[in-house]
Amino acid sequence: MAVRMCVRFSTVIFLSFNIGLLAAGIENSHMLNEADRIVRGTINHQTKYPKDCSGLSRLSPSGFYIIQPENGPYLIVLCDMTTEGGGWTVIQKNTKLNELTWKATWTTYKFGFGNVQGDHWLGNKYIHQITQQGLYRVRFIVYNRHNVSSFADYNMFSVNSETEGYRLSLGTYSGTAGDSMNYDRYEQDNMKFSTFDRDQDRYGSNCAHSYQGGWWFNNCYRAVLNVRIPYWQTLCCGNCKGSIILIKPNTDCCPVPRTV
C-alpha cells in the first residue's frame, strides 16, 4: 500500500520542551526550531526513556519522543508508530520542501542536522549508538516521480563506529523498490561513509563532493538519498520525490548477512 508523502505526525506529545531538560542533556537539541526551545509547558518526565522508538507503547501516536540509547545521551527523535506495526525510529527524511543543504561536513553528519520536525539526518554518531544495541533492520521508503511510495527492507542494518568510518552493514533485501543499495559494482554494503571533506569511497575522485551529499558511496552509487534529489536506480532516476529511512530491532531470530 502506498504511503502519502505528507504524513501528519502527532504534535501533542514531546513537541514543547522544558529548558531544564534541555540543560540536562538532549544532545541533539540543535535539531529543534528556536521556538521549541522556549518553555511552553511540561513534558512527560520519566526516570528511564526507551532506547529507541520500539520501546514505546503500541498505542502511542507517531510523533516526537525522547529516547536514550544504552550508555548514550538523551535524543529527540521522530517515531513512526503506524508503518508495519510501528516502533520505527526515523533516521532520515528528505521531502525537498525546505531546501536542506545535504552537502555538509563530516562533523555535521556525525552530530546530525536539519530539523526533526522536517527534513533531517539524525547523525552517524547516534545511528551507530542505536544500532549497536542489538540486531536492527532498516526500511528505505522512496517516493517516485508520481509521489507514490515503494520500500526496500534489509533484515540487518548497522553502522560501525567513527573509528571504522561509520561503515555500513546490510542484510538480505526484500520489498517493492528494488535492491539499489547492492547494485552490481556499485553495492554500498560494507562501504564507509563519505563527505566532501572525508573521501572514503572507491572512486577515482570524490563522490560526495561531486554529488553534493554524504553517503556510503562506492564507485559512486546506484542509490543515494542524502542529496537534493534522491536517487534510487531501480525505481526513480533523478526524479524521486523524497525518502524516509526507518530502523527498528529485528525480532526475527538471527537473520544471516547477505551473500554475494
From TrEMBL:
InterPro entries attached to this UniProt entry: Fibrinogen-like_C, Fibrinogen_a/b/g_C_1, Fibrinogen_a/b/g_C_dom, Fibrinogen_C-term_domain
Tell me yes or no: is Transport among this UniProt entry's keywords.
no
One GO location term (cellular component): extracellular space
Q: Where is the signal peptide?
A: 1-23
**Keyword set, alphabetical order:** Signal
Ranges for domain Fibrinogen C-terminal come to: 44-226
Would you say which domain of life the source belongs to?
Eukaryota
- Name under which the protein is recorded: Fibrinogen-like protein A
